[in-house]
Amino acid sequence: MSDNEPSDPDRPERPRFGEYSNEKPARPQFGEYASPEEQRAAIRVPATEDNESVPIESHGDEKKTPEHADRLHPHMPANRHPQAKSTMADDDPVAEARRRTDRFSTFLLLGVGLFSVLSTAPSLLQLPRMLTQAYSQFGMGEYTNTSLGTTIGWVILVIYAGLWIAALVLSLRRLAARKRTWWVPFVIGVVANLVYIILLTVAMVNDPAFMQYVNGMSG
Q1: How far is CA 50 from the centre of its chain?
Q2: Long-range CB contacts (< 8 A, 24+ apart) of 136-141?
Q3: What is the pLDDT of residues 50-103, one digit of tens each?
Q4: For residue 33, how far is the Cα from the chain centroid?
Q5: Which DSSP string do the residues of 126-150 spell out, in sequence order?
Q6: Is the pTM of this model over 0.85?
Q7: Taking the CB of residue 39, how many other CB atoms lie within 10 A of it?
Q8: Coil, strand, or helix at residue 92?
Q9: Among residues 29, 82, 74, 32, which one has the least CA distance to residue 53?
Q10: Tell me: the pLDDT tens digits for 136-167?
């Protein structure tokens, strides 16, 4: 029977998509015939109260801005950068006053150490003569071990200069790092004086005139 033939009212109409029909409806490919619940189940999104379809968000490689990161973490503090604490510490007037005092004390001790090195350099280069003058004041005679005295004088001077340079370098590094520094030249100065006393004692003990004077005092 063609489409133009009149239909028989007593004859049932042939189903187009029914169970006896050979024609089947096209299968939906992208869920346009799916219910909202089926759409949510497919994208694994929990159902909402309005039972509407939930669109799938884009998962592109977009670079998140700091504002977007704040929205993702609303309970995190807004200022969480490590530089914030250091900036607040720099603005503290008490801390700034302490740094100024420490800087002044450091350079003052370095200046004292430099003056000590420069003022003792001439006497250290002529250590035998300096010891002879000291001997004459106590009636000990003349310092005779001149070779040892000259060597020890140069050694003390080199150690003095090296320790002062070490104190200067360490102090500048600690000041640049905003650390307490005054104790660096102080400790190195104490070490330099101990080295001076020890080496000077070695030079005097190895002198025959000094040992004769000591034996005379004890006898």
Answers
A1: 54
A2: 138/213, 139/213, 140/209, 140/210, 140/213, 141/209, 141/212, 141/213
A3: 555 545 554 444 444 555 444 545 455 555 555 545 555 556 899 999 999 999
A4: 61
A5: THHHHHHHHHHHHT------HHHHH
A6: no
A7: 17
A8: coil
A9: 32
A10: 888 888 899 999 999 999 999 999 999 999 99
